[in-house]
TrEMBL record:
This is Ionic transporter y4hA. It is a multi-pass membrane protein. The chain crosses the membrane at residues 7-28, 34-54, 66-89, 101-122, 134-155, 167-186, 214-237, 249-271, 283-307, 313-335, 342-361. Keywords: Membrane, Transmembrane, Transmembrane helix. Residues 33-188, 218-360 form the Sodium/calcium exchanger membrane region domain. InterPro entries: Alkaline_pH_Ca-Antiporter, NaCa_Exmemb, NCX_ion-bd_dom_sf. It is found in: Membrane. It holds the Pfam family Na_Ca_ex.
Length: 362
């Protein structure tokens, strides 16, 4: 996933996860003063950047598309852990937190990340290429999962409001997990070649992969980074919620902020791939993360809701349904030709801007 890797890991990529872990252990669950809030924020950003580096080291060792899948799953683990921890903590917006975060993740990956990568790649190379056989089926899975888990709850009649009954939640959770499992099998085994960089794209096949010891060290440090990011983001959550209330924005904005935090490693890795003329890798990262966000998050929150007897609101509002359908309609046109230009990227980024604006001013 990267052009050239050093024999040894940079010092900062080793120090960042250690500092994040130490800071997390030292602060515990106490309140944060202004200077501690700044320190936690800076450490969180450093841990995210280190996570990207270590994920790329491991990914370069195992190759594509397994490398993209690894980073997508790692990022989704962060998302699930944050959502579950905040739901357990309770609060006014807890029942809808999973819905808001998953929907935000879909908007971010399908419009924000895809649009930014196509725009930057198109500006540098005029036209960027990818494999339709690797993008169209993935988009179909994402559409099916999104409608099943985020749209149907607003139309079912077994329970009041935009919710599923217990039986419906179990069915949706199992269906999401099974469909995600099939996607992983197709991407990594059955049709692995569909997800490799398109012909003519600049890849890193000739770059020497890192040694096995370096890859294992990076894997361990990646896990430490993820734990640090989850813990530090949880420490920041009360400040985020307080800030959202202070500016008078809807509580759904908290889900948007959480999704943007956890998808930062994915975004950086996808942009770097696009700038190296490997848009297929960028799309693997973005769309794969969207599928993982639903396929792993929904089963996790369903289990939590059943065992903890917590209410779970999954159905989207009408305005969010319109945005979702518009996103998938435009995405189908963008990803259906195998080539894209800056215009495609600009359209997706405009939709992303609309999503952010309506999240603050619904």
């Amino acid at each position: 996933m990267i052009k050239k890797l050093p024999v040894a890991l940079p010092v900062w990529t080793v120090a960042a996860p250690m500092v994040a872990g130490g800071l997390l252990l030292g602060l515990g669950q106490g309140g944060l003063s202004a200077w501690l809030l700044g320190l936690v924020t800076l450490t969180l950003v450093a841990a995210v950047l280190a996570a990207v580096h270590h994920a790329e080291v491991v990914a370069h060792r195992v190759g594509e598309p397994l490398g993209s899948l690894l980073l997508a799953v790692a990022v989704t683990v962060i998302e699930v852990a944050l959502i579950v921890s905040l739901m357990l903590a309770g609060g006014e917006g807890a029942p809808a937190l999973a819905r808001d975060t998953v929907f935000s993740a879909i908007m971010i990956v399908c419009n924000g990340i895809v649009g930014l990568c196509i725009l930057l790649g198109g500006m540098r190379f005029k036209e960027v290429a990818f494999k339709v056989e690797g993008t169209s089926p993935v988009l179909a899975v994402l559409v099916a999962l999104s409608v099943l888990t985020l749209v149907l709850p607003s139309f079912t009649t077994s329970s009041p409001g935009p919710t599923f009954s217990n039986a419906q939640m179990v069915f949706a959770g199992v269906a999401s997990l099974l469909l995600y499992g099939v996607f992983v099998f197709v991407q990594t085994v059955r049709h692995r070649d569909y997800f490799l960089p398109a012909d003519g794209a600049n890849d890193d096949a000739h770059a020497s992969p890192p040694s096995t010891p370096v890859a294992w060290v990076s894997l361990v440090l990646l896990m430490i980074c993820l734990v640090g990011v989850v813990g530090l983001a949880k420490l920041l959550a009360p400040s985020i919620e307080a800030g959202v209330r202070q500016v008078g924005a809807p509580l759904a904005v908290v889900g948007v902020i959480i999704a943007m935090l956890v998808l930062l490693p994915e975004t950086l890795a996808a942009v770097r791939a696009a700038l190296a003329n490997r848009l297929q890798t960028s799309l693997n990262l973005a769309l794969g993360s969207g599928i993982a966000s639903i396929g792993l998050t929904i089963p996790a929150v369903v289990l939590l809701s059943l065992f903890m007897q917590n209410s779970l609101v999954l159905g989207l509002s009408h305005i969010h349904m319109v945005l979702l359908m518009l996103t998938f309609g435009v995405g189908t046109l963008t990803l259906g030709t195998g080539r894209a230009t800056v215009l495609h990227g600009a359209v997706h980024l405009v939709l992303f801007t609309v999503f952010l604006f309506l999240a603050i001013v619904p």
